[in-house]
Amino acid sequence: MMNRFHYINKYIFLGYYNIPFIFELRCFIDWTYTQTSLDVYQWIKLNQIQADLYKSKCNNVSYFLKPVGEKVPTWYKYLTGLSMIGVIFILLLGPMFLFSSFNIFGEINPVSSASITFKLNLQEPSGVTSTYKLFETMTIQKKLDELEAWQYTTMGLDQNF
User: Is the pTM higher than 0.85?
Assistant: First the structure.
């Protein structure tokens, strides 16, 4: 099975490799009936290295068919590059739009207030706990319909908003 290097052989090998304990069973059987100076752990490691090299060689079949130094086609670079850039932007910006008020799929949930509190909890050996408030702040935001005309202008919002 591992004498040829092709995508089909790779997927057949991956199917065999991912069946639980079959790869390890083959390693133990081979080690048992092969004259070797390796212990069983070294033998398993050797088989893992051989499997990784086989998978890599199957992945690189297309590179062996490509002439050395041949440029990558422009259409392939744009297709791959722009799709990867798109995936990265979706991963970075997706959660922000999903959980923000710009979300078109959910209901609007504007922030009405925010607060932060830092406390220090000390527990004595006797089990008594003392709590000390170190810092606390709180903000309250007005609703947009409660703002006056000068506040709209100051914030740079259109009064017809």
Answer: no
